[in-house]
Amino acid sequence: MPNAGSSFLAAVWAILRKECRSEWRTRYGLNAAVLFAVTSLTGVSFAVGRLTDRSDVLAALLWVVLLFAALASLSHAFVREVEGRTLTLLRLVASPTEIALGKLLFNLVFLTVLEAVTVPLFLILMGAPGPRWGAFLALLASGSFALATSATLVGALISQTRGRGALFAGVSLPLLLPVLAAAVAGTRNQWAGGSAAVEVRMLMAYAAATLGASLLLYDHLWED
Amino acid sequence: MSALRETSVGVVGTEAVRVTARALAHRYGPQRGLEPLSFEVVAPAVVAVTGPNGVGKSTLLKIVAGLLEPSRGEATLAVGGRSVLAAERRRCVGYAGPELSFYPELGVAENLTFAAMTRGLPAPAVRVRESLDRVGLSRHGTERVAALSSGMMQRLRIAFALLHRPPLLLLDEPGNHLDDEGRVALRAIVAEEGRAGLVLLATNDEREWRLAERRIELSGRGLGHSA
């Protein structure tokens, strides 16, 4: 028999692989998210032109586009299991914590792919000054981690409720405001030549706290 | 008669698989799902759970599988003399029920491989092939689940339940949608698993409950328990 640790990791890895394969075949979330990001950036670019000297607006615009492009799709990691009636299968093969961590890793992969498409497009269309790459990537990584942990937790909590779409937005947005504020402030600072270290630490602390709370909650998620 | 069998929890004496219900009951909100019930069944055996619609046959199987927390009482599972907590039952229980669905964008074998890998089974491809063979689906391994007929889907549910060679097999209406060939395969599986372990069948189909040597009959006004 495999030991508990390797069995746990095997389950998380298998769920991540399954999520990636399902998303690749259906493009359920990625197409919608990329389409939103591209159309909104193109629309803003046509309307206001290049914003090279407005680092405050650039920072806010970048994170608003990323947040809203990602948000609808991130909730679907769990909602899809309920609507496709595959949650029973998942519960029969993995613990709630394994399921949630697999989904969290998938959400991180999803955000990474979304950012890989959106951020270069943003930098080009908006005429953003070249970022300080170390700080900028640290902000993207910590912001994505915070966004993914919150969205995964909320997605799991609301997955079996009625009106989950409205609930997800209603519950997520207040929870994500601190993430948005810290990410925008840090991004603006690095463009203005300042440090983003405080914001990166805040985002990591927020993500760690959310992940910690999630790990305590996940095992009680689907107790009827 | 005692037998040894390799299962998902190692090699166990089959007499060591024991399901016990004590004053077990369940409610769905204000509605009764399962009237108070007590019984004990020990491997090797095939036990049928019968009774009218809505009396709680599926509810009972879900509780034993650890998918549902009972409102009252308890259902315990012991394997090899060790009690298995509800949260850990998925390792010892093979469950096939009507609400079990698969990922339509994945193939038949891909769905089972995902289940085998998530369970951490050794040689997942071998386990998948073995399970598909047993239900007569080996020629359909590459087909997308979305393209399966109802009967094929039912066979896939049974293959899923057998995948990790569980000591306890819970089959809810297993003959649903099966053709004659499927029913022959089901009979063979139930007989084989019942010789080696414990099989609980929830059914009202006489062809299925006749496969069992014991019967637990549920009724809306209390429960009869007949040997």
Oligomer: heterodimer
Strand content of chain A: under 5%
Of all chain pairs, the largest interface belongs to: A-B, 29 and 29 residues
What is the CATH top level name of chain B?
Alpha Beta
CATH topology of chain B: Rossmann fold
Q: Tally the helices of chain A: what do you get? A: 8
**Main sheet characteristics of chain A:** none
Task: Characterise the protein shown here.
The complex is a heterodimer of chains A (224) and B (227). Chain A has 224 residues and is an all-alpha fold. Chain A has one domain (4-218). Chain A is 82% helix and 0% strand. Chain A contains eight helices and no strands. In chain A, helix 6 (133-158) packs antiparallel against helix 7 (164-191) and helix 7 runs antiparallel to helix 8 (197-218). Chain A is globular. With 227 residues, chain B is an alpha/beta fold. Chain B has one domain: P-loop containing nucleotide triphosphate hydrolases (Rossmann fold, 3-Layer(aba) Sandwich), CATH 3.40.50.300. Helix content of chain B is 29%, strand content 32%. In chain B, the strands form three sheets. Chain B has a six-stranded mixed sheet with strand order 8-9-10-5-11-12. Chain B has a four-stranded antiparallel sheet with strand order 4-3-6-7, covered by helices on one side. A two-stranded antiparallel ribbon of chain B has the order 1-2. In chain B, a hairpin with a 2-residue loop joins strand 3 (18-28) and strand 4 (31-42). In chain B, helix 2 packs across helix 3 and helix 3 packs across helix 4 (150-162). The A-B interface holds A 1-2, 6-7, 10-11, 13-15, 17-18, 21-22, 25-26, 84-86, 88-89, 91-95, 98, 219, 223-224 and B 9-10, 65, 67-69, 87, 90, 93, 95, 97, 99-106, 110-111, 114-115, 117-120, 122, 160.
